[in-house]
Amino acid sequence: MADRLGSFIVRGLNACGVILSAYIGPMLAAVVIRNIRDFFGHRVPVNTTNILGLVALQYFLAMTLMGMRLWEPAALAAPLVTMLILQTVLMGAVRLFRGLPLHGRELRCSDHRRGWLRLRP
């Protein structure tokens, strides 16, 4: 029921010029249906829902991993590592050159400096 209602939601939003993924509409419809059921006191069987969710998640992960081409993400490893190193250097420089002069050399400010440098007493 939620998938049919959600497809109408997605089509309506697409007609208005809003582009969304196909799963967003059914997810919104399911949220509305669940809240309406809870409001009127119709409880959803939680254990059954959890089991179905786990089975669906395992199926989704199996299908996704079977179709994944591992050479495509491997090409992104070098730029990703480079960005992480540059961010680490930048944050170290900010802590060193901005954090220390900002708090001065007073004893009461030592806790602030320790917070900037993530040092433990």
Which characteristics define this entry?
single chain, 121 residues, mainly alpha, 2 domains
Would you give an account of this structure?
The protein is built from 6 helices and no strands. It has 121 residues and is mainly alpha-helical. It has 2 domains: 2-68, no CATH class; 73-117. Helix 1 (2-15) packs across helix 2 (24-39). It is elongated, with a radius of gyration of 25 Å. The termini are far apart.
Give a short summary of the structure.
With 121 residues, the chain is mostly helical.
How far apart the termini lie comes to 58 Å
Q: Would you tell me the overall average pLDDT? A: 82
Task: Please provide the ordered H/E string of secondary-structure elements.
Answer: HHHHHH
Oligomer: single chain
List the uncertain runs.
none
Strand content: under 5%
Total strand segments: 0
Secondary structure tally, helices: 6
How helix-rich are the residues, as a percent range?
A: over 70%
How does the major sheet shape up? none
Our count of domains comes out at 2
Structural class: mainly alpha
Categorize the overall geometry.
elongated
Cα-atom radius of gyration: 25 Å
